[in-house]
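Subject: Sanity check before I submit

Could someone independently write out the structure tokens for this chain? I want to compare against mine line by line before I put it in a report. The sequence has 94 residues.
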Amino acid sequence: MAKDNEERRPGESKNARFTRLAQTRTTNVLRSIRILGNLSNTSNYSYTPEQVKKMFEAVRDQLDIAERKFDAGARKAVDEEFVFEPTPEKRKTR
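---
Independent answer below. Compare away.
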């Protein structure tokens, strides 16, 4: 993903900066969602309904958090890494 250069440009208003950054970041989010959808190709991947549910719940949760920041002014960032429970292949056997 291209860096959106958060530096304020000379003479750029707050709204112009918001518009420039929002367009870049929204484009990046939409691209990532399309790529996430590529995982549905059962010729290349296998997955359970539970994994799909968990994956999209995580996306929706973060989208809801981001949207609430605009409504309530709650600007505290929530950085979470999405991880499935360890798969049987990755679990150590004793």
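---
OP: Matches mine. For the report I'm noting this point. The first helix runs from residue 14 to 37.
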